[in-house]
Amino acid sequence: MLECLPQVPEDSILGLAAACRADPNPRKVDLTVGIYMNEEGLCPVFDAIRLAQDALVQEERTKAYMPPAGDPGFNSGMQQLVLGLGSPALLDGRVSSIQTPGGCGALRVGAEIINAAAPGARVWVSDPTWPVHIPLLGSVGLQFATYRYYDPASHGVNFDALVEDLKGARHGDVVLLHGCCHNPCGADLSLEQWAQIADMADHQGFLPFIDIAYQGLGDGLDADAAGLRLLVERLPEVLIAASCSKNMGLYRERTGATLFVSANPASAAALRTQAQVAARRIYSMPPAHGALLAARVLQDEALNANWRNELEAMCWRINGLRTSLVSKLEQCTGRDFGFIEREKGMFSFLGLSADQALALREQYSVYMLDSSRINVAGINGANIDYLAESVGKVLQAG
Ligand code: LMR
Fold it and tell me: What range(s) does the Aminotransferase class I/classII large domain occupy (predicted)?
């Protein structure tokens, strides 16, 4: 029976990471998957997470199942982290959440809830968006429309086009927004633009679904959530998918949360029960380890301060890498790459063609996505010159 299934192409991101791992060239540069790499080219464990883990290993007495909604301490910590301590929606009891297996699990649970409320609902996604958004939400049965977002000519958000397209979003539609550090382009909305989207959601009645996977890696934890918080303040309902992969370095521990901001406390509570049932259908209950670590880091004052400092240092380093890359690329190409400095988080497009990205891979072992999306956090002092020189040579070759 199963023989009828053909081989399928590898994932457009993970497949390239695997190809890079297999490349024997000692000068290879991996700018594929969005993970933070330090100067030594390693994805480090946060100090606060290591300390929390040491304590957890000593204290943990059971590996019994987690409840389907996950750890209550983790859930309340994530609500405060994402929405802010003084969030009126939180204080009014209009928020519930469940712990999920990573940000992907959070998106999937969010999609299940949308589909339960409005089967086959239309989700508006930015052009471009993270390629996994489509299969993740689409496999539940949701439909898609796209809104224009990134303008390759100006290397920024084409907000007029976004507004024009989202005028078509109606009550019953969902608009998927990147909370910060847009993946793949790094071009973010200004607070004024978030306010305009809030007005549109208010007038047109669409539901914002915000994917915030990179909080803390753009301008800081609170600044990165400012647009999201503005929507939450202004609208009765907002769905949020949050992740601890990047800002706590818990990638492989699959730690995330779906947050439901609802019109009233009864609806928030109802949505949590719906999400628990959805979770039971898909994976039953979330993995414990990462969320228990995150909960400690979110609750313990000393660990929290330690974590915030390390995250801030990462954020500064990424922004510093952006500045260095701009000047190295300009030296090697004579072109203006200043837009990279204006973008946020791990990703930027270099503005190369798919053929040029392929040439970089095949001739120089420099790995980026075909769209020329680079993971800025994969750059370090040892590879930045080689990267810029390789881009220069490929651009010169036409
Ligand atoms: C990325 O876009 O590289 C990250 O979000 C990792 C992933 O799962 O694709």
Answer: 27-390
What pLDDT, in 10s, does the model give residues 88-144? 999 999 999 999 999 999 999 999 999 999 999 999 999 999 999 999 999 999 999
Maximum pairwise Cα distance, the chain: 63
Pairwise CA distance, residues 138 & 79, whole Å: 26
Superfamily of the domain at 2-45+313-397: Aspartate Aminotransferase, domain 1 (3.90.1150.10)
| Residue 183 three-state SS | coil
Tokens 């040491």 — which residue? 54
The yes-or-no answer on residue 336 being catalytic is no
Contact 97, 74 (CB under 8 A): no
Where does 65-299 sit in CATH, by number? Answer: 3.40.640.10
Dist. CA 62 → ligand 1 center (Å): 32
Instruction: Provide DSSP, 9-53.
Output: PPPTTHHHHHHHHH---TT-EE--S-----TTS--PPPHHHHHHH
Give the whole-angstrom CA distance, residue 398 versus residue 377: 27
pTM (two decimals): 0.97
Find tokens 């996977």 and name the residue.
Answer: 213
Q: Which two tokens stand for residue 192?
A: 């004024």
Catalytic residue (one of 30, 173, 188, 211): 211
**CA dist., res. 270 & res. 262, Å (int):** 10
For the Cβ of 260 lying below 6 angstroms from any atom of ligand 1, the answer is: no
Q: Indicate the DSSP class of residue 268.
A: H
Indicate if 246 belongs to the active site: yes
